[in-house]
Design brief:
Layout (H helix, E strand, L loop, with lengths): L11 E5 L3 H12 L3 E6 L15 E4 L5 H6 L7 E4 L4 H13 L4 E5 L6 H6 L3 E3 L1 H13 L14
Length: about 150
């Protein structure tokens, strides 16, 4: 499969996981005119994409190198792995780093693993941490990444 004729300088994003988050991100990037490829194991997941989605889709397991080669990961400027599984997301993110992708982001459900991801140069998005920060704003209570009240000693 040859999804796009891109050189390394043009924005080409690969999104792994076409759930609500992956589909919405893909739709937004596509609406901005960026080249985007969405990979998911389940062909039906692509039904979440907007009818105006102008990117490409690839049915496959992105933990397999042949799927990443089909996606032309070596040409990607960004890889965002947003499956429902932390271990899958880290494996894909590490592979993307090995292929030289500059911006790699992984969704992380377990905030305790965030430090390890950062050591590999992988940016993380943690629903638990984001939720805590938003609740903190609403309540006006300082909460750290581990969920502890910063005002307590």
């Amino acid at each position: 499969m040859k999804p796009f004729k891109k050189n390394k300088k043009e924005q080409y994003s690969i999104i792994v996981g076409c759930g609500r988050l992956g589909a919405n991100l893909a739709n937004q990037l596509s609406a901005k005119g960026e080249s985007v490829l969405v990979i998911d194991k389940n062909k039906e997941a692509f039904g979440k994409l907007s009818p105006s989605f102008a990117g490409a889709t690839l049915v496959g397991d992105a933990t397999y190198l042949d799927v990443l080669h089909d996606a032309e990961i070596e040409k990607a400027t960004a890889v965002v792995s947003v499956t429902n599984y932390d271990n899958t997301n880290i494996l894909i993110a590490q592979a993307a780093k090995e292929f030289g992708v500059g911006q790699v982001i992984a969704r992380l459900y377990d905030p305790g693993r965030e430090r390890v991801y950062r050591e590999f140069g992988i940016d993380t998005i943690s629903p638990a941490v984001l939720s805590m920060k938003e609740i903190d704003k609403l309540l006006g209570v300082g909460v750290d990444a581990g969920g502890r009240n910063e005002n307590q000693s």
